[in-house]
Design goal:
This protein is mainly α. It contains 7 helices and 2 strands. The protein is elongated, with a radius of gyration of 27 Å. The relative contact order is 0.07.
């Protein structure tokens, strides 16, 4: 059993060491990118992260060395299990340090990203849109309403501000035309409803109930 445990821990440590090395490379790419694009960085933050990376790597090397100890016993098993947890938490925290907000949110002065690939994405990098869970709800609604036309789509928002933006910056400018009708459900947020009502050139139809069937009439 001890031999099996040592083998499993050794494999896990090798994986963690490789992962930490990749993070270090990723971090170096991040710094080079910021310098190239003249994006402000915090030198103290960078030094702090480098120190934690080095401490974490050295800690893993110490754990690996202790696995090779001839006097390895059950007490060491317990210690190493605790040490592995600390290492994994340290690696997870390092990955979050420089990516605590979505890539294009509040970056006028200080970068809040870490994954450089996000900067090249053509998608909206704000979590209220194109989030996997929101996409799942949109797909589910299309099925509920039995909508399969490729020219039709469903957009779900999760805040009042997002709803205002959808109406003002997209629907009224790119979709709706004078005389078009909009069905408003009873549970529509009152400020969004009032915003729609203020647009005099569209016809608003109020649903008779809360069920989705009331919207399909």
């Amino acid at each position: 059993m001890a031999g099996s445990f040592k083998k499993d821990i050794s494999l896990l440590l090798n994986q963690l060491i490789r992962k930490t090395s990749n993070i270090l490379q990723h971090f170096n790419d991040y710094i080079i990118y910021c310098e190239k694009e003249k994006i402000t960085q915090s030198e103290k933050s960078i030094i702090f992260i480098y120190k934690q990376l080095n401490v974490t790597i050295n800690f893993m090397i110490e754990i690996k060395d202790s696995l090779e100890c001839k006097r390895f016993n059950s007490i060491n098993f317990i210690k190493i299990e605790s040490e592995i947890r600390v290492v994994m938490q340290s690696i997870a925290s390092i990955q979050l340090y420089l990516s605590w907000r979505s890539p294009l949110y509040s970056q006028s002065m200080i970068p809040q990203f870490f994954n450089l690939y996000d900067q090249e994405s053509k998608k909206v990098l704000y979590e209220r849109w194109q989030h996997k869970e929101i996409e799942r709800i949109e797909t589910q609604l299309l099925k509920t309403f039995n909508i399969s036309d490729e020219n039709l789509s469903c957009t779900v928002v999760i805040s009042g501000m997002a709803a205002f933006s959808l109406i003002d910056l997209f629907l009224t400018r790119n979709v709706l035309k004078p005389g078009d009708s909009i069905i408003v459900s009873k549970y529509t947020y009152f400020e969004s409803r009032e915003q729609l009502e203020s647009i005099k050139w569209i016809n608003i139809i109020y649903s008779s109930g809360y069920d989705h069937k009331d919207l399909l009439k």
